């Protein structure tokens, strides 16, 4: 009996170790995946106007779902809107765009909110991406998707949005062009959320950079 327990323990440790080795850490249900900002027009524009005291540089966020041995990412992306994709596919797409992915985790006292958040997130799947960043039930952007998923438990808060470039003190020129193309006014001061603001939340902790997939 004792030897059987030792064998089972060895198998469990092997499986856990394999997952940790593949991604560089042990991933858990509800982990938040923050994608680095790059030099593209939209990614850079998001990062420039959403800096916080923690000085992170992110332009996208998704949520991890662990289902048995499989890992999925629930997120609202510019390619396909709100979707559920295999983690490896998500990582390869970001790697192809020269981005890296950092992992954050809700602190222990908030982790009980994760099952409901994942359930809620799945209700939003199929919604198109919201390029206006003005809150809508019909279209979602990445941080809005995560915020809504945890909204019942108030994990993240909406804040007045700003599109002012801190270096110039004026509306960022990329955002001016972005909204002019849509025939919209820049939604300065309207409620919203963003990846850098979420990364600065005191309710989550930084775990590290996920290992790149080859």
Structural class: alpha+beta
- For the termini, the CA-CA separation is 41 Å
The quaternary state of the protein chains shown equals: single chain
Largest sheet: 6 strands, antiparallel
Total number of strands: 10
Please give the count of helices.
7
Neighbour order of strands in the largest sheet? 4-3-2-1-5-10
Can you offer a commentary on this structure?
- The chain has 7 helices and 10 strands.
- It is 34% helix and 23% strand.
- The mean pLDDT is 91.
- It has helices spanning 2-23, 41-49, 87-96, 114-123, 142-149, 173-181, 195-199, and strands spanning 32-36, 58-67, 70-77, 81-86, 101-106, 159-160, 164-165, 170-171, 191-192, 204-209.
- By secondary structure, the protein is α+β, with helices and mostly antiparallel strands.
- The protein starts with a helix and ends in a 5-residue tail after the last strand.
């Amino acid at each position: 009996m004792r030897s059987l327990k030792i064998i089972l323990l060895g198998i469990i440790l092997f499986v856990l170790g394999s997952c940790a080795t593949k991604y560089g850490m042990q991933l858990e249900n509800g982990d938040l995946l923050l994608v680095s900002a790059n030099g593209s027009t939209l990614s850079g524009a998001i990062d420039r106007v959403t800096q916080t005291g923690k000085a992170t540089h992110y332009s996208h966020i998704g949520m991890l779902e662990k289902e048995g041995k499989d890992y999925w990412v629930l997120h609202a992306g510019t390619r396909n809107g709100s979707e559920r994709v295999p983690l490896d596919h998500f990582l390869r797409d970001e790697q192809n765009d020269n981005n890296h992915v950092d992992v954050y985790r809700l602190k222990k006292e908030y982790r009980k909110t994760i099952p409901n958040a994942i359930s809620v997130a799945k209700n939003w799947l199929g919604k198109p991406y919201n390029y206006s960043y003005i809150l809508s039930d019909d279209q979602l952007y990445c941080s809005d998707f995560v915020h809504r998923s945890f909204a019942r438990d108030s994990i993240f808060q909406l804040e007045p949005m700003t599109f002012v470039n801190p270096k110039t003190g004026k509306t960022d020129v990329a955002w001016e062009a972005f909204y002019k193309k849509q025939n919209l006014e820049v939604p300065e001061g309207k409620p919203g959320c963003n990846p850098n603001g979420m990364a600065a939340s005191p309710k989550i902790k930084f775990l590290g950079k996920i290992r790149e997939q080859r």
